[in-house]
Structure formats: C-alpha cells, structure tokens
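Subject — a protein and its fold

Tokens — whole-number codes for backbone shape
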Amino acid sequence: MAFKYSVEFRGQGAIARRLPSTWQAYSNLAGKTLLQEGRAVLQFARLLAPIRTGALRRSGYCVSVPLARGNNTTVLIGFRVSYAAIVHETHPTRAKFLEMAMRVMAQGMRARMESGIRKEWR
C-alpha cells in the first residue's frame, strides 16, 4: 500500500521578501556591537599607552566603516599622531600597547558580541 502526501508552504513569498531586511537589521546590530567592542579596546589601549605629553593617548580613534561590497562593517582603531607607530613598536616599557589591548579584549569578544546582538534583537 503506497501513501501519497504533499506539503505546502504558505507565505514563503513573504518570508523571502523579509530575509534581506532581516539580514540588514542583523548586520546593523553586529556592526553597532563591534563598534562598542572597538571603543572598549581603544579605552584599554589608551591606559596602556606611554604618556609623556598626553598627545598619543588623546589621538586615539575608533571608527566604523561600511565596506563597499555587502552589508559588512569593519572597525578601525588607531592613534593619529605621527610617532604612534614608532612608539608602539619600540617603546622600552610600553611597546605593543594597542596589540596587547586587542589580545586581552579578544578573550570573550565573541561571547560579548553574541550577547550584545541578542540584547538588541527584537
């Protein structure tokens, strides 16, 4: 005895139409959460940076940049003074201050990102 059955999905057109806007909303939340993480890395890097005049610490920046292709966002963190790279690479006691901040903050970043996106997602 053979059984015949069929499955019908209703509303699949509406679902297909909503996917791009849902993905865009998710991407926006991910970008916002990534920017918050970047700002936390910058704040920690400023604490680690050597201080003589304070110009290096004050020159720190964190900006969100949408990528040309797709809905992705990247976050740039750095220091604007001309000597920032030299200090970062060669300072006798505080070399690699931005790299150290990123390494420390990377621990648990995925979990914080997921949590931040979940909190905002509604």
Q: What stands out?
A: The chain has a mean pLDDT of 85. The longest helix spans residues 12-48. The CA atoms of residues 37 and 109 lie 7 Å apart. The chain has five helices and two strands.
